[in-house]
Amino acid sequence: MVPRYARPAMTALWEPEAKYRIWFEIEAHATEKLGELGVVPKSAAKALWDWWATQPEIDVAAIDAIEAVTKHDVIAFLTWVAEQVGDEARFMHQGMTSSDVLDTTLAVQLARATDILLADMDALLAALKTRAEEQKYTPTIGRSHGIHAEPVTFGLKLAQAYAEFDRCRQRLVAAREEIATCAISGAVGTFANIDPAVEAHVAEKLGLTPEPISTQVIPRDRHAMYFATLAVIAGSIERLSVEIRHLQRTEVLEAEEYFSPGQKGSSAMPHKRNPILTENLTGQARMIRAYALPALENVALWHERDISHSSVERFIGPDATITLDFALARLTGVVEKLLVYPERMQKNLDAMGGLVHSQRVLLALTQAGVSREDAYAIVQRNAMKVWESAGTLSLLDLLKADGQVTAALSEDELEEKFDLDYHFRQVDTIFARVFG
Amino acid sequence: MVPRYARPAMTALWEPEAKYRIWFEIEAHATEKLGELGVVPKSAAKALWDWWATQPEIDVAAIDAIEAVTKHDVIAFLTWVAEQVGDEARFMHQGMTSSDVLDTTLAVQLARATDILLADMDALLAALKTRAEEQKYTPTIGRSHGIHAEPVTFGLKLAQAYAEFDRCRQRLVAAREEIATCAISGAVGTFANIDPAVEAHVAEKLGLTPEPISTQVIPRDRHAMYFATLAVIAGSIERLSVEIRHLQRTEVLEAEEYFSPGQKGSSAMPHKRNPILTENLTGQARMIRAYALPALENVALWHERDISHSSVERFIGPDATITLDFALARLTGVVEKLLVYPERMQKNLDAMGGLVHSQRVLLALTQAGVSREDAYAIVQRNAMKVWESAGTLSLLDLLKADGQVTAALSEDELEEKFDLDYHFRQVDTIFARVFG
Amino acid sequence: MVPRYARPAMTALWEPEAKYRIWFEIEAHATEKLGELGVVPKSAAKALWDWWATQPEIDVAAIDAIEAVTKHDVIAFLTWVAEQVGDEARFMHQGMTSSDVLDTTLAVQLARATDILLADMDALLAALKTRAEEQKYTPTIGRSHGIHAEPVTFGLKLAQAYAEFDRCRQRLVAAREEIATCAISGAVGTFANIDPAVEAHVAEKLGLTPEPISTQVIPRDRHAMYFATLAVIAGSIERLSVEIRHLQRTEVLEAEEYFSPGQKGSSAMPHKRNPILTENLTGQARMIRAYALPALENVALWHERDISHSSVERFIGPDATITLDFALARLTGVVEKLLVYPERMQKNLDAMGGLVHSQRVLLALTQAGVSREDAYAIVQRNAMKVWESAGTLSLLDLLKADGQVTAALSEDELEEKFDLDYHFRQVDTIFARVFG
Amino acid sequence: MVPRYARPAMTALWEPEAKYRIWFEIEAHATEKLGELGVVPKSAAKALWDWWATQPEIDVAAIDAIEAVTKHDVIAFLTWVAEQVGDEARFMHQGMTSSDVLDTTLAVQLARATDILLADMDALLAALKTRAEEQKYTPTIGRSHGIHAEPVTFGLKLAQAYAEFDRCRQRLVAAREEIATCAISGAVGTFANIDPAVEAHVAEKLGLTPEPISTQVIPRDRHAMYFATLAVIAGSIERLSVEIRHLQRTEVLEAEEYFSPGQKGSSAMPHKRNPILTENLTGQARMIRAYALPALENVALWHERDISHSSVERFIGPDATITLDFALARLTGVVEKLLVYPERMQKNLDAMGGLVHSQRVLLALTQAGVSREDAYAIVQRNAMKVWESAGTLSLLDLLKADGQVTAALSEDELEEKFDLDYHFRQVDTIFARVFG
């Protein structure tokens, strides 16, 4: 976790105190059910909840001190709680194993983290939708291979991003379901010393579903799927970031990240206005992707479990969610404040002497009876001249002067092929498909 | 693709001929709809399908020869088809762009590949279920950290694997939905020169859904999600493989891969029987995981598209699906024929002098009024003696001789704590949760 | 391995026949030494080499057929050789284990593959050097963040690539040393049944060094380092490819991949000339990077060895080296034939109204006694106006009209700050550092 | 960075204060040289160093506050220093660009971090050597595929680890050389506004070598190689950790991590002694490996540079080095205090009824004139009986009763083949190769 790429709400989720609060809730809910089942006195849960109602502070340092001796975190916590609550606390954790607490806690943390990410995603989607509708019919050149292809609108670019992040949102919902499970099944998952009803109770109270079969731990294929999903989302963040970086290139300059008054682009070059936010997001995307790898390697735990996953998750649990939260929020800001330059878009669109209309001419020739091969050769011949002139020649002019063309198409027909609006007839259809 | 790790049905999907057949279907279906729309003569599609009805062979070498000149694969194919079908073929591909064909073809290939993988998965699930039910109550030691923990049954181990692969199956279904989309939207996805109805028609005929917004290409977040899902499944394959490798260790030997009569384990050591299939699967899992990475990097294509994804997909499209198909089938065979040794399981279970029952004694002491801390110390004190004796001492005997224990628990109560069946009371519940 | 991304010399190295030839050499050299040591009759090696001198074909199918029964590749091979050579062949492989053959063979294959890669690298370096010297003083704009910064020369760009690939060459030499080791140490590496002199002899004959301590296998940290090095080289290939893709963008167009006469850029858009080779290389770089991952996971084999690395290496051994060989050769071709457009470079350089000289003015103001903060503000104020004019205003003109500037600098002094050659005074120094 | 997996000396290197100290040194050394060259007054460097000699505290919060306005870290720092030092400070950073400072600082940090890692490595090597010599002739079973193979000594296992980490040490030295370069070359690396002598001076003072050609930034192939090397080392850490985890398995128990008196293995199972340190290291190795990936993706920066690498390096610079430092130190502790159980090793070695000697018998039969095929069949036939008896039958006894064996070998000859020491005759040779 890098503090400058972290936001407080997400970070708080991963603080020791937040973790201990969830531990307590799990233990207290479990004790409550154990009381109902007659396994422990009902007074035990009451004592725990009574203490909790006093809104006690969690003394992280004290718990750490105990752990330094026991070298076992859950025992350290239980010992500390017992010191606070008194004798009744000895009934806590009956028939449970540490992982019952740890894994269920991780589920709660990841589920809550995902709720934040879903809210982030909603904000990003809202920003994309607003800007897409605003730019719905702003003409701009579509590019394949970085080369001018045919006209699109800037709204379509943003609609594409919307559709992509909408898929990411759905994937995030699915990923949340993957990891929102509860296991209170004892040392090897057999419920040997604890009734499954305890698990059901704790799950319900914490908004989780019971894990159908656990083996001391919740199986790590779930977490692998979770972090792999974050990695895919990172890819989409990178895609939109790279798009904006391209648009801000000096030679393109169709859009720019907002540049605040006091900001300095370069200590050496006062004229610089750099797309640093999206470059920064590109790097963050690389990190979020990287965090998926150890999660994938965590799946193959030995037998009923080994603990190799644990050190990994101490890193990637916070780091992946905190960074993704930050990245989504930063990207939302970039989209909301993005400076868009329609005049420059039009200028770039016109720069190639009408080459972007070459396909329509090709089709028209074919439909006028010229063979596809011949039509291609005719258009390419003229297009190459325009290309080599760097847009100073006009494709329309050249075609008007080409006998093989005029034999097939009238001047009016030719000119109609260079109409920009022709390309945008389906924009409304596409927007309806994307935004419903 | 490594031939020895490839099965014919999956491999055939990725042969040039299979690809060209899909190309033809896409072009012919599109031409058909274009005919209905009056864009091209209806006779065009008829000519194409008439030729197709003759079940022509696809001359891959001839197409390759044309591509060597044009350096463009789709144009080479169209040229070859035109040579076969004649003049009417010139109406093919009207208003389409190469990627309309290529991306939709990849969708068909991946969807069909996934159908094979789903069938593989069903076979694996069936094998796991059969063996799980067969071994439902076979006692075996559960291990955490590679260390004996408490008893489980071998059926539970297999049920866990079933539940995990059942989740993998659901993920595969979701992954198939991700990539089964069709784009026939023209050079930059605006449908400038082609009616969206063509896309809808082709999609329906090929069992795909139309891509809501494409940009010459289908967005690669879909493929990233697809290959990331295969990577997660690889993790589960590795987990079960590693489990079997552990069980076959000389010192454990609770199960073994089937060893056929003519087989030689080692050229040097005639006594060896090695878990080579599951070791082999472990390596294959690493490969399938690796293939997800370039798919994740493919997402951020430049602007409306660049073609960097293409070389990646020429590798990972076949390699990931062929290897996963092979791995699932191999794993199914391993599970079906796995040699299980219940006597050895029981022997290992008994080897630690009853240490595996230590938790139950701990709980009993606590319930008998001993503080948790004291109870832990008492049990650990005796357990450590047994541990250091390497199982030659009996925990039950030591406890019977410990005054602090006998002050709290009678001999009968103590003995009841060493009952194996106690641990299996919830096996039926768990099986019901897993198998329904 | 994708056939279209494979060249014959490298591919041949990984064919079964090439592998079996190395196997034979290892076995025959070992038998020779065993004969000298008196462990086996000297006639054994003679019989083997006599047969070899007949230049026999390797019947791969026959060996495969034997393996189908024995399920052991080395035994199958030995059996087949024995069928060819006769009775004397039974002395082969005395005291050796399969891995002695397999691992030493992999070392030979990787060493030979690296020799090809080194030759590829030399060709690339030669091409870069030639083009760098040719373009040594071609002015072009340097860009940071995709934004115009200050002038460089195109030769400097190529010199940077040269320096980077020269480092890659050195890394490749180091990587070759890592894997060029020989192990003939028996079943668990103790030389229990084979004299270390055999290993020394085979190593010398095959141009390898003896592995100081092996454990049936050569340790896989060596291979991890090897494939990780290839991954780093892939990054450098990607960097130069991305540079060229950027330069070929329509709006930049300072350089282009060579475009052959018959070539078609797009089936739909006849005007397209796309940087497909470098896009293709970008994707290949992703693959070569991906292959490092399973090699890294291969390191932690169990105990003296498990065989999980083997299936991985059947993939990545050929795939990584074949793809890198192809990529280096393709990149060399791109560099050799790259179309360079100095006029366009100059035009782009001039496009920002002289903004690229802003830093020199800043420095001059500071040296003339203006505080750094004030100087920055003055220059930025004027630079921003030029920036917003998209280069139609001239920075020099604006500065001449700015009282705070003229108070510090004379008109002559100002004009001198806009001299392009000023930036190239150290080009010769840098070239000397790079090319020696 | 996870605090519990971090050690103070390494962590301190990455604190803001340490970074700012290096920034100051670079700026002051550069100003000094600029003074010598007559570019700035000599008094400027004097003022800087005079202030530095007062051992000023770095007010990180104050610098952060300035950065919040300027959004530029180096400018914020320069501004703060100027506030402290006064007017002379305006000569700092003349002709330099931020990256001159940032990249050279990263080089210093990584070089210093590597010095710590080298010291860690030395400690680990020393521990391995000590334990290897101590256990040089402790017999233990060698295992391939997790299956008993032939005898080795525990010292050989440790010597293998020593040799592997010794290679890692050499790689670390090479990796340090890769990144220990200095760039003070200005905005695009042309030295337009700064004499190369400044770079040479700063490099010498900081123990770096000048980067032959930089482009505002030091090329990131260097850092990719660096982090890839750490990833390889992580693999070796994982290998030794996995070995120890295997040895500590209940059924094997040939070695154990040291278990301190107060420690609790499990909150539920008082008898547990788990290999948690090596499991923990396994997870950390996964993380260190993962950090190499974004470093590899960082290589392909756009043109002369983009800043996407920066956010990545804010994560992996500290995280990879801090985690590796911790991991090496932890592993050293594990090795130093490892509990080794020679009796259990001997017991396991004997457990298979002498099967581990099967190869020697095979060889003896071959040398006595039996064909290799027949010999293999004879030995396997008897070996399989022993195998199926789980070691209760003795291979030697069975062979003595097998007519085909006794026809070829006398009883004495047979018995000699079961001599353990036979396997250790080359241990001394191997130790000499490893330890010199």
Automatic annotation (TrEMBL), chains A, B, C, D:
Adenylosuccinate lyase C-terminal domain span: 353-435
Catalytic activity reported: (2S)-2-[5-amino-1-(5-phospho-beta-D-ribosyl)imidazole-4-carboxamido]succinate = 5-amino-1-(5-phospho-beta-D-ribosyl)imidazole-4-carboxamide + fumarate; N(6)-(1,2-dicarboxyethyl)-AMP = fumarate + AMP
Signal peptide feature range: none
GO cellular component term of the entry, any: cytosol
Pathway: Purine metabolism; AMP biosynthesis via de novo pathway; AMP from IMP: step 2/2; Purine metabolism; IMP biosynthesis via de novo pathway; 5-amino-1-(5-phospho-D-ribosyl)imidazole-4-carboxamide from 5-amino-1-(5-phospho-D-ribosyl)imidazole-4-carboxylate: step 2/2
EC number: 4.3.2.2
Pfam family, one: ADSL_C
GO molecular function, one term: (S)-2-(5-amino-1-(5-phospho-D-ribosyl)imidazole-4-carboxamido) succinate lyase (fumarate-forming) activity
Ranges that cross the membrane: none
Protein keywords: Lyase, Purine biosynthesis
UniProt-listed GO biological process terms: 'de novo' AMP biosynthetic process; 'de novo' IMP biosynthetic process
Enzyme class: lyase
InterPro entries in the record: AdenyloSucc_lyase_C, Fumarase/histidase_N, Fumarate_lyase_CS, Fumarate_lyase_fam, Fumarate_lyase_N, L-Aspartase-like, Pur_lyase
Entries under SMART domains matching the protein: ADSL_C (SM00998)
Record family assignment: Belongs to the lyase 1 family. Adenylosuccinate lyase subfamily.
Protein name: Adenylosuccinate lyase
